[in-house]
Design brief:
The chain is an alpha/beta fold. It has twelve helices and eight strands. The longest helix has 22 residues.
Protein backbone atom coordinates (compact mmCIF):
# COMPACT_ATOMS: atom_id res chain seq x y z
CA UNK A 1 0.00 0.00 0.00
CA UNK A 2 1.45 3.36 -1.05
CA UNK A 3 1.93 6.12 1.53
CA UNK A 4 -0.48 8.35 -0.35
CA UNK A 5 -3.20 5.66 -0.03
CA UNK A 6 -2.54 4.75 3.58
CA UNK A 7 -4.71 6.43 6.17
CA UNK A 8 -3.60 6.01 9.77
CA UNK A 9 -5.72 6.65 12.83
CA UNK A 10 -4.92 6.86 16.53
CA UNK A 11 -7.59 6.31 19.18
CA UNK A 12 -5.79 7.97 22.06
CA UNK A 13 -3.31 10.78 21.51
CA UNK A 14 -0.84 10.47 24.38
CA UNK A 15 2.93 10.52 24.39
CA UNK A 16 3.50 7.06 22.90
CA UNK A 17 0.97 7.58 20.11
CA UNK A 18 2.54 10.95 19.34
CA UNK A 19 6.00 9.37 19.18
CA UNK A 20 4.85 6.75 16.68
CA UNK A 21 3.15 9.42 14.57
CA UNK A 22 6.29 11.58 14.52
CA UNK A 23 8.29 8.59 13.35
CA UNK A 24 5.87 8.00 10.48
CA UNK A 25 6.02 11.65 9.48
CA UNK A 26 9.80 12.02 9.67
CA UNK A 27 10.32 8.92 7.54
CA UNK A 28 7.75 10.04 5.00
CA UNK A 29 5.73 6.89 5.58
CA UNK A 30 2.44 8.78 5.73
CA UNK A 31 1.60 12.44 4.98
CA UNK A 32 0.31 14.44 7.94
CA UNK A 33 -3.02 14.95 6.20
CA UNK A 34 -3.54 11.16 6.29
CA UNK A 35 -3.14 10.88 10.06
CA UNK A 36 -6.17 11.37 12.32
CA UNK A 37 -6.02 11.27 16.12
CA UNK A 38 -8.84 11.27 18.66
CA UNK A 39 -8.87 12.22 22.33
CA UNK A 40 -11.66 13.28 24.70
CA UNK A 41 -10.20 16.79 25.13
CA UNK A 42 -7.82 19.16 23.35
CA UNK A 43 -5.11 18.64 25.99
CA UNK A 44 -3.06 16.25 23.85
CA UNK A 45 -4.36 17.25 20.43
CA UNK A 46 -2.70 20.65 19.99
CA UNK A 47 0.70 19.07 19.26
CA UNK A 48 -0.88 16.85 16.60
CA UNK A 49 -2.47 19.85 14.88
CA UNK A 50 0.87 21.69 14.95
CA UNK A 51 2.36 18.75 13.01
CA UNK A 52 -0.36 19.06 10.40
CA UNK A 53 -2.30 16.00 11.52
CA UNK A 54 -6.08 16.02 11.73
CA UNK A 55 -7.81 15.62 15.09
CA UNK A 56 -11.23 14.79 16.45
CA UNK A 57 -13.04 14.07 19.70
CA UNK A 58 -14.95 11.21 18.05
CA UNK A 59 -13.41 7.73 18.12
CA UNK A 60 -15.86 6.47 15.50
CA UNK A 61 -14.60 9.12 13.08
CA UNK A 62 -11.11 7.62 13.33
CA UNK A 63 -12.49 4.25 12.19
CA UNK A 64 -14.48 5.83 9.39
CA UNK A 65 -11.47 7.77 8.08
CA UNK A 66 -8.62 5.26 8.58
CA UNK A 67 -7.39 1.90 7.33
CA UNK A 68 -4.72 1.27 10.00
CA UNK A 69 -6.00 2.08 13.50
CA UNK A 70 -3.73 2.22 16.57
CA UNK A 71 -5.57 1.76 19.87
CA UNK A 72 -3.45 3.83 22.25
CA UNK A 73 -5.74 4.24 25.26
CA UNK A 74 -5.07 3.20 28.85
CA UNK A 75 -5.73 -0.55 29.31
CA UNK A 76 -8.65 -0.07 31.71
CA UNK A 77 -10.38 2.22 29.21
CA UNK A 78 -9.89 -0.03 26.18
CA UNK A 79 -12.87 -2.42 26.67
CA UNK A 80 -15.28 0.52 26.66
CA UNK A 81 -13.58 2.01 23.59
CA UNK A 82 -13.81 -1.34 21.76
CA UNK A 83 -17.52 -1.55 22.55
CA UNK A 84 -17.95 1.97 21.14
CA UNK A 85 -16.02 1.42 17.90
CA UNK A 86 -17.08 -2.20 17.25
CA UNK A 87 -19.95 -1.27 14.89
CA UNK A 88 -17.55 0.71 12.67
CA UNK A 89 -14.83 -1.97 12.39
CA UNK A 90 -14.78 -3.60 8.97
CA UNK A 91 -12.76 -6.16 6.99
CA UNK A 92 -10.60 -3.39 5.48
CA UNK A 93 -9.29 -2.27 8.88
CA UNK A 94 -5.99 -3.27 10.47
CA UNK A 95 -6.37 -2.75 14.22
CA UNK A 96 -3.20 -2.45 16.32
CA UNK A 97 -3.50 -2.42 20.13
CA UNK A 98 -0.83 -0.79 22.31
CA UNK A 99 -2.67 -1.57 25.57
CA UNK A 100 -0.51 -3.45 28.08
CA UNK A 101 -2.04 -6.64 29.44
CA UNK A 102 -4.86 -6.84 26.88
CA UNK A 103 -4.41 -10.15 25.06
CA UNK A 104 -5.19 -11.00 21.45
CA UNK A 105 -7.86 -13.36 22.76
CA UNK A 106 -9.57 -10.45 24.53
CA UNK A 107 -9.25 -8.21 21.47
CA UNK A 108 -10.80 -10.89 19.23
CA UNK A 109 -13.64 -11.37 21.70
CA UNK A 110 -14.47 -7.65 21.83
CA UNK A 111 -14.10 -6.95 18.09
CA UNK A 112 -16.13 -8.37 15.17
CA UNK A 113 -15.23 -11.89 14.00
CA UNK A 114 -12.47 -11.87 11.41
CA UNK A 115 -11.00 -8.50 12.43
CA UNK A 116 -7.35 -8.19 11.42
CA UNK A 117 -5.84 -7.35 14.80
CA UNK A 118 -2.25 -7.16 16.04
CA UNK A 119 -0.84 -6.49 19.50
CA UNK A 120 2.10 -4.09 19.76
CA UNK A 121 4.34 -3.40 22.74
CA UNK A 122 6.54 -0.31 22.25
CA UNK A 123 8.81 1.40 24.77
CA UNK A 124 9.36 5.03 25.71
CA UNK A 125 12.32 5.78 23.36
CA UNK A 126 9.87 5.39 20.47
CA UNK A 127 9.14 9.07 21.11
CA UNK A 128 12.68 9.87 19.87
CA UNK A 129 12.53 7.22 17.11
CA UNK A 130 14.92 4.91 18.98
CA UNK A 131 12.45 2.44 20.40
CA UNK A 132 12.42 -1.33 20.75
CA UNK A 133 9.06 -2.79 19.75
CA UNK A 134 7.62 -6.26 19.39
CA UNK A 135 4.28 -7.28 17.96
CA UNK A 136 2.18 -10.41 17.63
CA UNK A 137 -0.54 -10.99 15.08
CA UNK A 138 -4.03 -12.32 15.71
CA UNK A 139 -5.52 -15.28 13.85
CA UNK A 140 -7.02 -13.13 11.09
CA UNK A 141 -3.93 -11.01 10.39
CA UNK A 142 -1.72 -12.37 7.64
CA UNK A 143 1.79 -11.82 6.32
CA UNK A 144 0.71 -8.65 4.51
CA UNK A 145 -0.57 -6.97 7.66
CA UNK A 146 2.52 -7.98 9.64
CA UNK A 147 4.85 -6.70 6.89
CA UNK A 148 2.95 -3.41 6.66
CA UNK A 149 3.13 -2.82 10.42
CA UNK A 150 6.83 -3.66 10.51
CA UNK A 151 7.51 -1.32 7.58
CA UNK A 152 5.60 1.53 9.21
CA UNK A 153 7.22 1.17 12.62
CA UNK A 154 10.79 0.68 11.40
CA UNK A 155 10.92 4.48 11.39
CA UNK A 156 10.47 4.44 15.18
CA UNK A 157 13.27 1.99 16.03
CA UNK A 158 13.73 -1.78 16.18
CA UNK A 159 10.51 -3.67 15.40
CA UNK A 160 10.28 -7.47 15.54
CA UNK A 161 7.43 -9.95 15.20
CA UNK A 162 7.27 -12.44 18.09
CA UNK A 163 4.92 -15.05 19.58
CA UNK A 164 2.44 -13.35 21.91
CA UNK A 165 4.02 -15.15 24.89
CA UNK A 166 7.13 -12.97 24.41
CA UNK A 167 5.25 -9.70 24.83
CA UNK A 168 5.22 -9.80 28.64
CA UNK A 169 8.91 -10.73 28.59
CA UNK A 170 9.55 -7.71 26.36
CA UNK A 171 7.76 -5.59 28.95
CA UNK A 172 10.18 -6.82 31.64
CA UNK A 173 13.22 -6.52 29.37
CA UNK A 174 12.61 -3.31 27.45
CA UNK A 175 9.33 -1.62 28.37
CA UNK A 176 10.32 -1.43 32.03
CA UNK A 177 13.99 -1.93 31.18
CA UNK A 178 14.33 1.68 30.08
CA UNK A 179 13.86 2.66 33.72
CA UNK A 180 16.61 0.27 34.85
CA UNK A 181 18.97 1.90 32.37
CA UNK A 182 18.04 5.37 33.64
CA UNK A 183 18.76 4.25 37.19
CA UNK A 184 22.14 2.86 36.12
CA UNK A 185 22.93 6.08 34.24
CA UNK A 186 22.01 8.10 37.32
CA UNK A 187 24.29 6.00 39.52
CA UNK A 188 27.10 6.22 36.96
CA UNK A 189 26.87 10.01 36.89
CA UNK A 190 26.60 10.30 40.67
CA UNK A 191 29.77 8.25 41.03
CA UNK A 192 31.56 10.84 38.88
CA UNK A 193 30.00 13.68 40.90
CA UNK A 194 31.31 12.01 44.08
CA UNK A 195 34.79 12.09 42.56
CA UNK A 196 34.50 15.81 41.69
CA UNK A 197 32.95 16.14 38.22
CA UNK A 198 30.05 18.63 37.71
CA UNK A 199 26.67 16.89 37.55
CA UNK A 200 25.57 18.16 34.14
CA UNK A 201 28.79 17.02 32.50
CA UNK A 202 28.69 13.67 34.29
CA UNK A 203 25.11 13.02 33.12
CA UNK A 204 25.97 13.88 29.54
CA UNK A 205 29.01 11.57 29.54
CA UNK A 206 27.01 8.76 31.21
CA UNK A 207 24.32 8.99 28.52
CA UNK A 208 26.89 8.98 25.71
CA UNK A 209 28.65 6.01 27.32
CA UNK A 210 25.42 4.01 27.30
CA UNK A 211 24.64 5.08 23.74
CA UNK A 212 28.10 4.11 22.49
CA UNK A 213 28.09 0.76 24.28
CA UNK A 214 24.65 -0.07 22.86
CA UNK A 215 25.72 0.93 19.35
CA UNK A 216 28.75 -1.37 19.57
CA UNK A 217 26.54 -4.28 20.63
CA UNK A 218 24.18 -3.72 17.70
CA UNK A 219 26.79 -3.02 15.04
CA UNK A 220 29.34 -5.70 15.96
CA UNK A 221 26.87 -8.42 16.92
CA UNK A 222 29.30 -9.46 19.64
CA UNK A 223 28.07 -10.93 22.93
CA UNK A 224 28.20 -8.28 25.68
CA UNK A 225 30.53 -10.49 27.72
CA UNK A 226 33.05 -10.42 24.84
CA UNK A 227 32.83 -6.62 24.57
CA UNK A 228 33.16 -6.26 28.34
CA UNK A 229 36.27 -8.43 28.26
CA UNK A 230 37.75 -6.25 25.52
CA UNK A 231 37.67 -3.26 27.90
CA UNK A 232 39.47 -5.09 30.71
CA UNK A 233 43.26 -5.20 31.01
CA UNK A 234 45.06 -7.30 33.63
CA UNK A 235 45.24 -5.37 36.89
CA UNK A 236 43.58 -2.33 35.32
CA UNK A 237 40.84 0.06 36.42
CA UNK A 238 37.95 -1.77 34.75
CA UNK A 239 38.47 -5.18 36.32
CA UNK A 240 38.72 -3.55 39.75
CA UNK A 241 35.43 -1.75 39.10
CA UNK A 242 33.71 -4.89 37.78
CA UNK A 243 34.74 -6.73 40.96
CA UNK A 244 32.77 -4.15 42.97
CA UNK A 245 29.72 -4.62 40.71
CA UNK A 246 29.94 -8.39 41.18
CA UNK A 247 30.14 -7.97 44.96
CA UNK A 248 26.98 -5.87 44.73
CA UNK A 249 25.25 -8.66 42.76
CA UNK A 250 24.42 -6.32 39.88
CA UNK A 251 23.90 -9.15 37.40
CA UNK A 252 21.52 -11.15 39.63
CA UNK A 253 19.64 -8.03 40.70
CA UNK A 254 18.97 -7.00 37.10
CA UNK A 255 17.85 -10.52 36.18
CA UNK A 256 15.50 -10.47 39.18
CA UNK A 257 14.12 -7.09 38.04
CA UNK A 258 13.31 -8.45 34.55
CA UNK A 259 11.63 -11.46 36.15
CA UNK A 260 9.58 -9.32 38.56
CA UNK A 261 8.35 -6.97 35.81
CA UNK A 262 7.51 -9.90 33.50
CA UNK A 263 5.54 -11.65 36.23
CA UNK A 264 3.66 -8.45 37.03
CA UNK A 265 2.79 -8.03 33.33
CA UNK A 266 1.44 -11.61 33.33
CA UNK A 267 -0.63 -10.88 36.44
CA UNK A 268 -2.06 -7.73 34.85
CA UNK A 269 -3.18 -9.77 31.84
CA UNK A 270 -5.16 -12.05 34.18
CA UNK A 271 -6.96 -9.18 35.97
Amino acid sequence: MEAAELRVGFVGAGRMAGGLARGLLRAGKVPASSILASAPSDKNLDAWRESGCRTTHCNLEVLQESTVVFLATKPHILPGVLQEIRPAVGPHHIVVSLAAGVTLQTLHRLLPAGTKVLRLMPNLPCVVQAGAMVFARGSSAGDGEAALLKSLLSSCGLCEEVPESYINIHTGLSGSGVAYVYMFAEALAEGAVKMGMPGSLASKIAAQTLLGAAKMMLETGEHPAKLRGDVCTPGGTTIHALHQLEKGALRATVMNAVEAATNRACDMAKD
